[in-house]
Amino acid sequence: MAADALNIKALVFDVFGTVVDWHTSVTRHAENFGKANGITADWVDFAESWRAKYRPFMDKVRTGELPWTELDSLHRMGLDELLNDFGITGVSEEAKADLNLAWHRLDPWPDSPPGLTRLKAKFILATMSNGNIALMVDMAKYANLPWDTILGAELAHAYKPDAKTYLTGVELLHLKPEQVMMCAAHQGDLLAAAKQGLRTAFVKRPMERGINGKVDTTPDPSFDFVCNDFRDLATQLGV
Question: Can you give the residue ranges of every domain in the chain?
Fold first, then answer.
């Protein structure tokens, strides 16, 4: 069914992996960190291991083990643990803080800036990310992402897939859930949004985890739209 018939007014986006290439970017920043500090490591493994700490630390917030804590701080907790895991010592606080900002400096997928710009001509565009506002703003500047506004976990004080994250964004836009479409490369994110009444668009990102990574791009049949990238999504939505 066409977007006009569905009365979609806004598109909200998962960001890490869907809009930006975290795997390649974090690996590169980690390699540069290694060169600057005279450290040798498997930096692909380092990047993937850092990403793997993302959910366990968020779960500590969800369960109340940690109070509300923004993602920048969770990333730093994960980094401190990761450096210990890799046996990396003697690194300055300044170097650690700079490496933690790698998540602010992620390269967009090639179709993201032009595709999003097309979509913005017809729809409100917003993040729906677990990333905090400062992180999302820095990334938007770095990667030329044309958001109309930043929504997501920090405003809701809840991490996806908590219903509150999606519904707070919808409420702040003064829209109904069915007027907002969640766009993501992660099927669990879309299914959680759909449970709250949002429309869904699955964006295939087979390279999210690098050349050797495994990503399931077979869409759940319940999704409203399935696209290869944001240019394809714009075409399907009549932009």
Answer: 3-21+107-236, 22-104
**Alpha carbon distance 239, 230 (integer Å):** 11
Contact between 23 and 48 under an 8 Å Cβ cutoff? The reply is yes
The DSSP code for 87 is: T
Confidence bin at 237 (pLDDT 50/70/90): very high
Buried b (16+ CB within 10 A) or exposed e, 74-109: bbbbbbeebbeebebeeeeeeebeebbebbbbbebb
CATH number listed for the domain at residues 3-21+107-236 = 3.40.50.1000
| 97-120 residue pLDDT tens | 999 999 999 999 999 999 999 999
CB distance 85 to 49 below 8 Å: yes
162: left (phi over 0), alpha (psi -120 to 50) or beta: beta
